[in-house]
Amino acid sequence: MKFDPAVLGYRLRFLREYVHPLTSGPYSFAELRSELANRGIVVSDSHLRNIFAGRVAAPSWPLILALADIFKVEETVFSDSEDRWKTIESWILTTSAQVEQRRLAAARGLKRREKLTARQSQLFAQPLDENPQGAGEDN
Known about the structure:
The protein is mostly helical.
């Protein structure tokens, strides 16, 4: 399969930015090299950066397969037509935005819960007034 280096580079940069574990941000090149090594692919930092920059005309097929596996896409995504890519890109952007909205909502909910818990702790930590206003007084 033949790749346009500029197209391959753009698509890889896009995937690196938007497709990553929920618990972290985009993969660093060191993390990508580690992930590739876990799949039996050893690549230098400069070669990997050149692929992502669109400066490598013919990356190895095993490397392409491993990158597709890391980013959870089919390897054809790197050579698909522009129309097909736009569909995939749009889906990834939409999904990424939805995930981010859920994260923010969860974070807001957690902060509210923390505030309520702190307020409850304050209320329960206050000593009870043994003689509330007006209690026990003769009228």
